[in-house]
Each structure stands twice: as C-alpha cells, then as structure tokens.
Amino acid sequence: MREDLFQKSRMQHQEPTNWERPSTNTRLWLGPVADLMGFPGIPEADYTGVYFEYECFGRLPKHHGEIVIELQGERFEQYYDRDGKTCISEVSCYLVAPEYWALQEQPYKDAVAIHGLGRTTSWVSTVFGTLMAFGLGSTAYGMYQYYSTFTIWPEEVRGDLRAGIKAKNQGDLNLSERYLRRALETAQSLPLEKLSPEPYLKISGIASALAEVLESNNRPQAAYEVYVAILSHLQGATDKTGPEKLRTVAIAYKLGEMAETYQQPAEEEERWLTFAVEEALRILRDFQSTNPGQDLQAQVNLSELELPPGFTEIDIAVPMKKLGAFYQRTGKLELALTLYISSMGVITSELGTLVPALAGCLAAESMNYVAEVLVRISPTPERREQAESWVKKALTLLLRAKSAADAGEETRGEIDQLLASTLYNLGSFREMDNDLLEARKYYVESRKTASEIKMREGVMEADVAIRRIDRLTRPHQGPP
C-alpha cells in the first residue's frame, strides 16, 4: 500500500484511483489561498498557498467546519461546506510561503500553522473508528477469529488451513493466499455433513481469512470479490444457525466498510450497509415471532426486543450507526438522525446484555452524533438548545460509565476520548450562545481530559478554542 494516496503538487492534487486506501496524516495541496478560501486581506505575495493536513478514514473530506487562520496578529475566519460531507478526524491548515513549497516531507518550517475544526463541527468522530472495535471490527462478529484448534476441521481441509494461517502469521502473504484459497475450494466441494456443525460458519471463516490476507497484500479488489462471493453463498443457505446468520450481517458490513475505504461509488456502500441493517433487524424480528411469550406486534420498540442467543446490542446497533454515518456524510440528515436514535434504543435496551460502562459509552457516542445532525438540519436557537440537551445527556452517561466498577482499562480509555470530545462540544454550544465564560470552562476540562490520555488532537483543539475565548473576552484597549 502506498504511503501517500494523494499526490501533492504545487497547483493541483491527483484524485485517488479505485481501490487505493487513503493514508492517515495526509498532506494535500488545495490551491491558492485567494482562489480557494476567499479570505480578505491575506498578503498573497507572501503566502500563496494553503495545505490541509488531516487524518482521513474514508472519502476525501469535503467539509472542514470553521477554519481559523491567524496571520501576523490578525484573525481570519471562513465557514464553508462544499457538499455537506464530513469524514475527517483532524485538520491542520498551513499558509505556505513559496520558498517552502519544496518542503514536502517535513513540517513546513516557518509556515504559519493553525489547527481546528472549530465551533460548528463536532469532533466526536475522532473516536468513532476506535469505538467500532467494540463491535464489528472485533470478536463480536468473529470476522477474523480462528478456531483454537484445527481438529474440528475435516482432514481434507486441515492441512492447507493450518499452513495458510502459519504463512500469514510469518508474513508470507502470497503463500498464505495459495493455501487458504485451496482450503476454501476444498471446503466448498465437501458435503455439508463433513463440515458440521455450522458448515456455513466454517466456509465463511476460511473465506474471511483469505480476504483478509488479500487486503493485507494490497489486493483489496480481490478481497472484495471474495466477500461478495461468500455473502452470496450464505444468502442461498436456508438452514443457517444464529452465528451463521450473524456472519451474513458481518460480511455485508465489511463490504460497506471497504466500499467507503476504497472510495467506491456511494450507491455500493449504501447497498451493503442497508443490507446489513435490514438483515440484522429481520433476524431480530424472526426471533420474536418464534420465541414463546413474545408478541411481535406489541414489541415495536427496538429497546424492548429480546435478543437471539449469541447476539449482543452491538450486533444490531453498529450497522445502524454506520449507515447513519453514511447518510450524514451524504447529506441525508433526516435518515441519519433516525438511525442514530434507533441505535441508541438498541444500546439502552432494558433487556440489554452489555456492561453499563460500554453501553453508556456507545449511547453517548450516538447522542453526540444526534446533536451534530440536529444542528446541521436547522441551526436555529431552538434546535441548538435541543442538540445541547443531547450532549448534556451524553456527558451524564459518560461520567456514570467512567465511575462504573466494571469499566476495564481499555473501556476507560475509550470513555475518556469521548468525554474529551463531549466536553468540547458543550463548550461549542455555550460559545455559540455567547456564554463565553462557561464555554471556556468546558474547553479547559476537555483539554485536561485529552491531556491525561495523551490525545494530541484533543489538546490542540481545546487550546485553539481557549485562545479564541481569551481574545474575545480580553478588555478592549482604545487609543492612548
């Protein structure tokens, strides 16, 4: 995988081609300051270009919120939103003097640097990807989970599977692919009885292992095709067990994730994520209709539905949240809002199985996203007040989760990241209402939390906000 997806040049950037992963901490040349930003008063002769440095976990970011540029003691602001899309977790902006154009591979020495998403855009997205590890990216869906012993596999498959996993662990991805592909072909040729119990889980497990190797070996399109093929195979099976049904949802989710990562058409991403959500809900509702004592008509509220054996709230909520993020990114804000609220209903279910700390963390994340979407739909004072109330609820949940006895060290780290973001967002709302002293308190608390967990971007965001408040509250000094 290339280190830099986006090729930098003096006057233009090269668009990413299909099946290339955006790298993080990417520097991207966006063009002349005057043409791009339209800032009045910037001395174009001295500073003729602007770079954005950001962490990208999806498509090329189009929405940068508030850009604050400090130049020679003066302050310039600009709000702009090209397509209403956002997929960034961190932005730094550099005004670059011509003599520093050549400094492509190191920080721009003597350039004027600023940093910030600013007051109008939540940066809760900094922890979104991390929190996903609680769900589909980890053992909840078992996408890359291998059985602890090879003895459960038929003898015809066992040797190639063992050799493929060993080669993968040793870093020989080409050899691993050959063994795993042969193991998959063999497994698919065997009678299902040979692979029982749960034959579809075993076959899809080999396919997932093969796809992971292909993606790691810089062959994402081949990996994508393996996932599509095995999902089709699973869809054709009529007698799947609960874990096998869950694997169907997981692979559809993975395909949606890959469609975003490798910048495939939005329709492709929407197709797979929609399938994952609909399939998860179908499994959930089928269980209610077959479970004695459950009245499907009465159980219309997702928070009241009983989960099938082997399922957790994460298995239902995370696909919803991911599809909501897609709709938020593509400007379908009402759909995004519905999905975020639905995911909260699942996470906070009275019949839930999650430990309180994890449930609180995931629900608080959704609440921050609900707040952001509400403001983007209609940034009226009434809507801002409604959004702020969601963020306050998130803060209450996070403080409760942080003090929970069952919050392990890893969970505490995620809680603190989200807590720093939530405090910052509350500061933003107070600042928008011109309650600057209260806003500063929240920013200071956000900085303190971010500093404790060494969350660099959080510290920088809070520092920018605190300096901004200090400038605004500084007594005006008139002429002598």
From TrEMBL:
Protein's name in the database: Uncharacterized protein
Organism of derivation: Meripilus lineatus
Region described as Disordered: 1-21
Classification via InterPro entries: Mrg3-like, TPR-like_helical_dom_sf
